[in-house]
Fold:
Amino acid sequence: MSVKLNEKFLTGFVAPEEVTKISHLTGAAFDVVKSKSGAGSDFLGWVDLPVNYDKEEFARIKAAAEKIKGMCDVFVVIGIGGSYLGARAAIEFCKSPLYNNLAKDTPEIYFAGNTISSSALADVLRLCEGRNVCVNVISKSGTTTEPAVTFRIFRELLEKKYGEEGARERIFVTTDRARGKLKEFSTEKGYETFVVPDDIGGRYSVLTAVGLLPIAVAGIDLDTMMKGAADAREAYSCPCIETNDCLRYAALRNIMYNKGKSIEILVSYEPAVQMFCEWWKQLYGESEGKDNKALYPSSVIFSTDLHSLGQYIQEGLRTMFETVIDFKNSVDTVVIPDDPNNIDGLNFLSDKELHDVNRMAMTGTLFAHNDGGVPNVVIEVDDRDEYNFGYLVYFFEMACAVSGYMLGVNPFDQPGVEAYKKNMYALLGKPGYEDHKAALEARMN
Ligand code: PA5
Structure:
């Protein structure tokens, strides 16, 4: 098994018997997921997705990715929340955060439509100037403001540049199978479309066309990624708390929460994992943060953030625990050279691999944070690659569903996301929101 839970750094914070003691709760929550008998059970398509995906569409995704690779220098992925985080996380995790700057035979990939910032959009438009561009707009509902506005702009750009027919060849749409304005419009225009399955919500959709098309355009092997997820599904199929790491992680989060920890910090020592942390934050924040409950999901990249948030974690309010993703192997090897003058006094590091130094920084930090009163769960992973990306996605998705049910919330809805939209629509004068606008204006005066 290439992903393994290490509970050594929980000593003194959580006793192994505490996990065993709540195994009836993890078991019951797991059963609710498996039997599809809980709240939001219409959205459990991700449970069997790694072995039960649409093979015909999978082949079409690969073919479209090849076409896109041959047709453009810049691939713009338009989407927000679950409609972009997974793809961006995968590309940075499996390739690099500097993917766009490194030499490659695949297009540069930029993400747009995940903000309403004019400057952010203008920058992507500048990057497209004089280059061949393809676009993938991803929106399950097809009506989300951020991607919809951005798609208007890119559609106009492509139609001006390539004409209606040329633009049609360069626009790829990922949306609902049959419903919604974007689906209707795509059918009318003749765009190639891919499906966000009915039974998979945005934040659980990275292994559907939502994530897979951009991931394939980046040249990442989809079969290996799906195999990782399928192996995780198999590994976490037993409701046994002693051996199922996914259930143990859900149990540990629950125990920590009940001991008064209100913040979980996901930690990695690899900058390439930063966007994976963003994906994880959405998964847990949107799934669990309801009814005035749940751990607040936060993240850091060490050792970078040891020089910013490290002080707080070591000595601030004792309300957090950390979940550390530890990669045993590094993708690259960098050796520290010897300096005959030893100007920095660091010759004790001469000829050592940087990755070994990074892992010693991790071990040192684990002890330091334990001594400072911060419990640490460690998730050991062999390699940072597509197989383990798929594996970790499944691990965190299943643990999230189980955790959500243990907490007593519906892990598959996001009613709170509507509150800002309602206000924004009213303030912008959307028809039908007149009374709400008046109420907000009265509050402003
Ligand atoms: O997880 C979710 O369901 C959300 O984050 C959505 O992905 C996000 O709001 C975007 O929605 P849509 O794909 O409908 O544009």
